[in-house]
Amino acid sequence: MAHPRHRLAAALLGATTLLLSTVTLAVAQPIIEGERFHPAVGTHGMVATSNTLATQVAHDVLAQGGNAVDAAVTAGFALAVTQPQSGNIGGGGFMLISDEKSGKVIAIDYREKAPQGASETMFQDEHGNVIADASRYTANASGVPGTVAGLALALDKYGTLSLAQALAPAITLAENGFAVPQLFSDNISQARERLTQWEATRKTFFKSDGSVYQPGEVFKQPELAATLKRIAEQGPREFYEGKTAQLLIAEMKRHGGIMTLNDLNAYQPALREPVHGSYRGYDVYSMSPPSSGGAHIVQILNMLEGDDIGALGFNSAATIHLMSEAMKRAYADRSQYLGDTDFVNVPLAAITSKAYAHSLRAQFDMQHATPSSEIAPGQVAPYESDQTTHFSVADDQGLAVSNTYTLNFSYGSGITVDGAGFLMNNEMDDFSAKPGVPNAYGLIGGAANKIEPGKRMLSSMSPTIVKHDGKNFLITGSPGGSRIITTTLQVIMNVIDHRMNIQAAVSVPRVHDQWSPEEIRIEQGISPDTINLLEAMGHTVVTKEAMGASQSIVIENGTFYGGADPRRSTSAAMGL
Prior knowledge:
Helices cover 37% and strands 16% of the residues. The protein has 576 residues and is α+β, with helices and mostly antiparallel strands.
């Protein structure tokens, strides 16, 4: 019988031989290759928002049997607590809902409205010059908020939860507080000088000694919690007719604002027909005016459809050149034709016409950039027959929700409603303070977007749902001011043309051209060789900070894939 030590040596030798043979086999086998970006995966649903806590509470709603609309409304109210720079009840936005069972896509317009006391020249001086920041950092910068009415309408018509149930997680987060993430602390610090000029804002968002909440510290909002409780108990009209309305108007008057209780009482969201186009066999649905996003996403896709974008390559000089030429022409049309269809006749059929797009495409020179000075709004008649939050939700019952809402700038006007705990928007800057004069995003507007009482200001928000063979396929959208349109466009192209998974599609570098100023704006990551080729064509290329934060979902063969945009460090996608 072998000595135990010998048996041990034999065992070790056998193990070593096995290990070596395993290593040999491993070396002989090909290395398994995979994706660089990995989406969240689910079989029963998906939530993608810009905040982990909002994603979690919306996911919980789906897990407990709620539908996509229930989860979306819950997320919307939760973001109003956890992401005050853009999530809101003092702003407004747009929601798209796709119901596979009925085949319908519904657009809910809860964009803010100008108060009845507003006028075309309210932000101009006696000489007709635009007054700097008057439409941005004053009480009169605020339009009548629409978020509460819009989310409540969506829930009432298409959800299964009560408003009180949808509000419960937001109330808990406001009352008990949440640990502040780094992004929250950084954003407050960057906006400190502007925010601390308002007493109620100092009291609400800063510590009692005036310092900023640091990462990990618990931030509570008792006044906001009380406001949300009133809405939960009394319904959405409480915001427009009850104590909250009175507190809001008192704050506006305190700072010389023109908004009245009658403005709040009269506010109603609107159901719209979404913009519909097609691209390479996919149906593209997006928001209709007063959003300009849907019309121009469809218009740009129409201009590019005749080119083999996939073969030209992702972010190649040829692809970016084509995109730039198409974007410039769309933004030129935006400057003249887009506005609130309740007030102006928008030539929507012409702008989204493939024939019109083909006429514009014929103007492209593939070797040279067209100077913006040579591009004017097109002749549409023959064809007529920066802080925002986007989130996407889908369930396994065929419902999908794409929602974009905003205060406009980060923290809106900066004015917090004392006693109610929420910030007011500064959406009045999205009107044309004076036709031909750029707004804060450099966008030029015309008479179609002039200020009028009760009118909704033009927006770039572009909640979008792409369907294939009648099934929900891609749910997308983004924040980013004037870059919303091009960000959403590129997510669609990345998925359809470049065959990227959704996490890659929302992560890779983006480009943007809005006609004026004369430049292609790019993110870091575009090859210097590509930039040189573009400059040789006559383009001006500038590298600036990241654009957008697209929280998106792709559904394929019954599996849900979520892409959380890394441009916001708190973004999160979660599958069920």
